[in-house]
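Fill in residues.
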Protein backbone atom coordinates (compact mmCIF):
# COMPACT_ATOMS: atom_id res chain seq x y z
CA UNK A 1 0.00 0.00 0.00
CA UNK A 2 1.57 3.29 -1.14
CA UNK A 3 1.15 6.89 -0.02
CA UNK A 4 1.98 8.68 3.19
CA UNK A 5 1.32 7.31 6.66
CA UNK A 6 -1.67 9.62 7.11
CA UNK A 7 -3.13 8.51 3.76
CA UNK A 8 -2.75 4.82 4.63
CA UNK A 9 -4.43 5.40 7.99
CA UNK A 10 -7.31 7.24 6.28
CA UNK A 11 -7.82 4.18 4.06
CA UNK A 12 -7.83 1.93 7.13
CA UNK A 13 -10.42 4.15 8.80
CA UNK A 14 -12.67 3.96 5.71
CA UNK A 15 -12.30 0.16 5.60
CA UNK A 16 -13.05 -0.09 9.33
CA UNK A 17 -16.28 1.87 8.85
CA UNK A 18 -17.28 -0.28 5.88
CA UNK A 19 -16.96 -3.47 7.91
CA UNK A 20 -18.77 -1.99 10.93
CA UNK A 21 -15.75 -1.85 13.28
CA UNK A 22 -16.37 -0.57 16.83
CA UNK A 23 -16.02 3.18 17.36
CA UNK A 24 -13.09 2.68 19.76
CA UNK A 25 -11.04 1.10 16.92
CA UNK A 26 -11.92 3.95 14.55
CA UNK A 27 -11.05 6.56 17.22
CA UNK A 28 -7.63 4.96 17.76
CA UNK A 29 -6.93 4.93 14.02
CA UNK A 30 -8.00 8.58 13.79
CA UNK A 31 -5.67 9.51 16.68
CA UNK A 32 -2.76 7.84 14.87
CA UNK A 33 -3.74 9.62 11.62
CA UNK A 34 -3.63 13.02 13.36
CA UNK A 35 -0.19 12.21 14.82
CA UNK A 36 1.02 11.25 11.35
CA UNK A 37 -0.38 14.49 9.87
CA UNK A 38 1.46 16.54 12.54
CA UNK A 39 4.74 14.72 11.87
CA UNK A 40 4.36 15.22 8.12
CA UNK A 41 3.68 18.96 8.53
CA UNK A 42 6.74 19.32 10.74
CA UNK A 43 8.87 17.44 8.22
CA UNK A 44 7.68 19.70 5.38
CA UNK A 45 8.37 22.80 7.49
CA UNK A 46 11.86 21.59 8.39
CA UNK A 47 12.61 20.97 4.73
CA UNK A 48 11.80 24.62 3.98
CA UNK A 49 14.26 25.88 6.60
CA UNK A 50 17.86 26.45 5.50
CA UNK A 51 20.34 24.38 7.53
CA UNK A 52 21.85 26.27 10.46
CA UNK A 53 25.31 27.61 9.67
CA UNK A 54 28.24 26.30 11.67
CA UNK A 55 30.76 28.53 13.42
CA UNK A 56 33.21 27.90 10.58
CA UNK A 57 30.61 28.78 7.95
CA UNK A 58 29.87 32.06 9.69
CA UNK A 59 33.57 32.72 10.12
CA UNK A 60 34.18 32.22 6.40
CA UNK A 61 31.34 34.56 5.43
CA UNK A 62 32.38 37.47 7.71
CA UNK A 63 33.17 40.43 5.45
CA UNK A 64 34.74 42.88 7.88
CA UNK A 65 36.00 43.37 11.43
CA UNK A 66 32.53 44.01 12.88
CA UNK A 67 31.02 40.90 11.30
CA UNK A 68 33.95 38.82 12.55
CA UNK A 69 33.46 40.18 16.06
CA UNK A 70 29.76 39.21 15.95
CA UNK A 71 30.67 35.68 14.93
CA UNK A 72 33.26 35.45 17.71
CA UNK A 73 30.68 36.66 20.24
CA UNK A 74 28.71 33.48 19.62
CA UNK A 75 31.60 31.55 21.13
CA UNK A 76 33.63 33.99 23.27
CA UNK A 77 32.86 36.67 25.88
CA UNK A 78 32.99 40.34 24.79
CA UNK A 79 35.69 41.39 27.25
CA UNK A 80 38.01 38.71 25.93
CA UNK A 81 37.98 39.83 22.29
CA UNK A 82 40.40 42.75 22.24
CA UNK A 83 40.29 45.42 19.55
CA UNK A 84 44.02 45.00 18.93
CA UNK A 85 43.35 41.43 17.82
CA UNK A 86 40.57 42.48 15.44
CA UNK A 87 42.82 45.12 13.86
CA UNK A 88 44.86 42.42 12.13
CA UNK A 89 44.30 41.20 8.57
CA UNK A 90 40.80 39.68 8.29
CA UNK A 91 41.93 36.68 6.27
CA UNK A 92 44.72 35.91 8.72
CA UNK A 93 42.37 36.20 11.70
CA UNK A 94 40.03 33.70 10.05
CA UNK A 95 42.91 31.28 9.55
CA UNK A 96 43.95 31.59 13.19
CA UNK A 97 40.42 31.08 14.52
CA UNK A 98 39.72 28.19 12.16
CA UNK A 99 42.89 26.45 13.36
CA UNK A 100 41.83 26.85 17.01
CA UNK A 101 38.39 25.46 16.16
CA UNK A 102 39.90 22.54 14.24
CA UNK A 103 42.22 21.65 17.10
CA UNK A 104 39.40 21.88 19.65
CA UNK A 105 37.46 19.39 17.52
CA UNK A 106 40.45 17.03 17.52
CA UNK A 107 41.02 17.54 21.24
CA UNK A 108 37.64 18.20 22.90
CA UNK A 109 39.38 18.30 26.28
CA UNK A 110 40.67 21.71 25.17
CA UNK A 111 37.32 23.36 24.46
CA UNK A 112 37.11 26.67 26.29
CA UNK A 113 40.77 26.84 27.29
CA UNK A 114 41.77 29.28 24.54
CA UNK A 115 39.15 31.93 25.25
CA UNK A 116 40.86 35.33 25.02
CA UNK A 117 42.34 37.04 21.96
CA UNK A 118 44.80 39.92 21.91
CA UNK A 119 47.72 41.33 19.93
CA UNK A 120 51.09 42.82 20.77
CA UNK A 121 54.05 44.33 19.00
CA UNK A 122 57.15 42.24 19.56
CA UNK A 123 60.03 41.87 17.11
CA UNK A 124 61.10 38.31 16.37
CA UNK A 125 57.97 36.60 17.72
CA UNK A 126 54.76 35.49 16.03
CA UNK A 127 52.43 34.74 18.91
CA UNK A 128 52.16 33.77 22.55
CA UNK A 129 49.84 31.86 24.85
CA UNK A 130 49.25 32.63 28.52
CA UNK A 131 48.60 30.18 31.33
CA UNK A 132 45.01 31.43 31.42
CA UNK A 133 44.37 30.88 27.70
CA UNK A 134 45.03 34.24 26.07
CA UNK A 135 46.31 33.96 22.50
CA UNK A 136 48.25 37.02 21.36
CA UNK A 137 49.45 37.52 17.79
CA UNK A 138 52.06 40.00 16.59
CA UNK A 139 52.71 42.31 13.65
CA UNK A 140 53.34 39.37 11.31
CA UNK A 141 49.55 38.98 11.17
CA UNK A 142 48.98 42.53 9.91
CA UNK A 143 49.12 41.51 6.24
CA UNK A 144 47.78 38.47 4.43
CA UNK A 145 50.32 35.66 3.97
CA UNK A 146 53.32 37.41 5.51
CA UNK A 147 56.36 35.34 4.39
CA UNK A 148 57.69 35.58 7.94
CA UNK A 149 55.03 33.06 9.03
CA UNK A 150 56.37 30.41 6.66
CA UNK A 151 59.49 28.27 6.53
CA UNK A 152 61.86 26.79 9.07
CA UNK A 153 64.28 29.79 9.09
CA UNK A 154 67.38 27.63 8.59
CA UNK A 155 66.24 25.01 11.06
CA UNK A 156 65.19 27.44 13.79
CA UNK A 157 61.63 26.12 13.48
CA UNK A 158 60.20 22.76 12.40
CA UNK A 159 59.91 22.02 8.69
CA UNK A 160 56.92 23.10 6.57
CA UNK A 161 55.92 25.84 8.98
CA UNK A 162 52.77 27.82 8.04
CA UNK A 163 50.57 30.40 9.82
CA UNK A 164 48.30 27.53 10.89
CA UNK A 165 51.30 25.67 12.33
CA UNK A 166 52.27 28.83 14.25
CA UNK A 167 48.82 28.74 15.88
CA UNK A 168 49.24 25.01 16.53
CA UNK A 169 52.51 25.81 18.33
CA UNK A 170 50.64 28.25 20.59
CA UNK A 171 47.82 25.75 21.04
CA UNK A 172 50.38 23.28 22.39
CA UNK A 173 51.25 25.83 25.08
CA UNK A 174 47.53 25.94 25.92
CA UNK A 175 47.58 22.13 26.24
CA UNK A 176 50.43 22.32 28.74
CA UNK A 177 48.47 25.03 30.58
CA UNK A 178 45.45 22.71 30.72
CA UNK A 179 47.65 19.93 32.11
CA UNK A 180 48.89 22.24 34.88
CA UNK A 181 45.31 23.38 35.46
CA UNK A 182 44.31 19.75 36.03
CA UNK A 183 46.98 19.55 38.71
CA UNK A 184 45.54 22.57 40.58
CA UNK A 185 41.80 22.55 39.68
CA UNK A 186 40.83 24.62 42.72
CA UNK A 187 42.61 27.64 41.19
CA UNK A 188 40.84 27.74 37.84
CA UNK A 189 37.37 28.71 36.59
CA UNK A 190 36.71 28.18 32.87
CA UNK A 191 40.45 28.13 32.19
CA UNK A 192 41.06 31.42 34.01
CA UNK A 193 42.31 32.28 37.51
CA UNK A 194 40.03 34.61 39.49
CA UNK A 195 41.43 36.98 42.16
CA UNK A 196 39.21 35.28 44.75
CA UNK A 197 40.86 31.97 43.90
CA UNK A 198 44.32 33.49 44.30
CA UNK A 199 43.50 34.89 47.73
CA UNK A 200 42.01 31.60 48.89
CA UNK A 201 44.87 29.46 47.52
CA UNK A 202 47.82 31.84 47.54
CA UNK A 203 50.51 29.22 48.15
CA UNK A 204 49.17 27.06 45.32
CA UNK A 205 49.03 30.15 43.11
CA UNK A 206 52.72 30.86 43.72
CA UNK A 207 53.53 27.21 43.03
CA UNK A 208 51.55 27.27 39.78
CA UNK A 209 53.40 30.40 38.64
CA UNK A 210 56.72 28.77 39.49
CA UNK A 211 55.89 25.52 37.66
CA UNK A 212 54.57 27.41 34.63
CA UNK A 213 57.79 29.41 34.52
CA UNK A 214 60.27 26.57 34.91
CA UNK A 215 58.22 23.80 33.27
CA UNK A 216 58.88 21.36 36.11
CA UNK A 217 55.44 19.75 35.66
CA UNK A 218 56.47 18.73 32.12
CA UNK A 219 59.51 16.74 33.20
CA UNK A 220 57.64 13.41 33.63
CA UNK A 221 56.22 13.88 30.12
CA UNK A 222 59.69 14.55 28.73
CA UNK A 223 60.97 11.41 30.43
CA UNK A 224 58.14 9.40 28.84
CA UNK A 225 58.93 10.82 25.39
CA UNK A 226 62.65 10.14 25.69
CA UNK A 227 62.01 6.60 26.94
CA UNK A 228 59.91 5.96 23.82
CA UNK A 229 62.89 7.11 21.77
CA UNK A 230 65.29 4.89 23.71
CA UNK A 231 67.04 7.90 25.27
CA UNK A 232 67.83 9.12 28.78
CA UNK A 233 67.17 12.64 30.07
CA UNK A 234 70.87 13.49 29.77
CA UNK A 235 70.58 12.79 26.03
CA UNK A 236 67.62 15.13 25.55
CA UNK A 237 69.50 17.27 23.03
CA UNK A 238 69.61 14.29 20.66
CA UNK A 239 65.82 14.43 20.56
CA UNK A 240 65.21 18.19 20.47
CA UNK A 241 67.81 18.56 17.72
CA UNK A 242 65.53 16.42 15.52
CA UNK A 243 62.63 18.83 16.09
CA UNK A 244 64.15 22.30 15.67
CA UNK A 245 66.71 24.67 17.17
CA UNK A 246 63.86 26.51 18.87
CA UNK A 247 62.91 23.25 20.61
CA UNK A 248 66.33 23.26 22.26
CA UNK A 249 65.57 26.50 24.15
CA UNK A 250 63.53 24.98 26.99
CA UNK A 251 61.07 22.23 27.82
CA UNK A 252 58.02 24.36 26.93
CA UNK A 253 59.26 25.05 23.42
CA UNK A 254 60.29 21.44 22.91
CA UNK A 255 56.69 20.29 23.35
CA UNK A 256 55.21 23.20 21.38
CA UNK A 257 57.54 22.72 18.41
CA UNK A 258 56.98 18.96 18.45
CA UNK A 259 53.21 19.43 18.40
CA UNK A 260 53.44 21.96 15.57
CA UNK A 261 55.72 19.61 13.61
CA UNK A 262 53.15 16.80 13.87
CA UNK A 263 50.36 19.24 12.96
CA UNK A 264 52.22 20.40 9.86
CA UNK A 265 53.78 17.12 8.75
CA UNK A 266 51.75 14.26 10.19
CA UNK A 267 53.54 10.93 9.78
CA UNK A 268 56.45 12.77 8.15
CA UNK A 269 57.22 14.65 11.37
CA UNK A 270 60.39 13.67 13.19
CA UNK A 271 60.27 10.65 15.47
CA UNK A 272 61.16 12.93 18.37
CA UNK A 273 58.21 15.21 17.58
CA UNK A 274 55.88 12.23 17.51
CA UNK A 275 57.16 10.94 20.85
CA UNK A 276 56.86 14.35 22.56
CA UNK A 277 53.38 14.91 21.11
CA UNK A 278 52.17 11.47 22.19
CA UNK A 279 53.39 12.12 25.74
CA UNK A 280 51.66 15.51 25.73
CA UNK A 281 48.31 14.13 24.55
CA UNK A 282 48.54 11.18 26.95
CA UNK A 283 48.90 13.63 29.83
CA UNK A 284 46.01 15.75 28.57
CA UNK A 285 43.72 12.72 28.40
CA UNK A 286 44.88 10.86 31.50
Amino acid sequence: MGGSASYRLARRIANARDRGAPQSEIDELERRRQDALTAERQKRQAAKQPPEKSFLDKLNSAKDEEELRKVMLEKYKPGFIHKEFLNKDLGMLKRALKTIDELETRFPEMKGKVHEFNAKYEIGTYGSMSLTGQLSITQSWDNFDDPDLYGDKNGWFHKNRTPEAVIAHEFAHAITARILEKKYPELFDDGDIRPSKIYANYEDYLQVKKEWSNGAFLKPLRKEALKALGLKVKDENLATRQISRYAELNIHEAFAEAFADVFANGDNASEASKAYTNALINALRS
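The chain has 13 helices and three strands.
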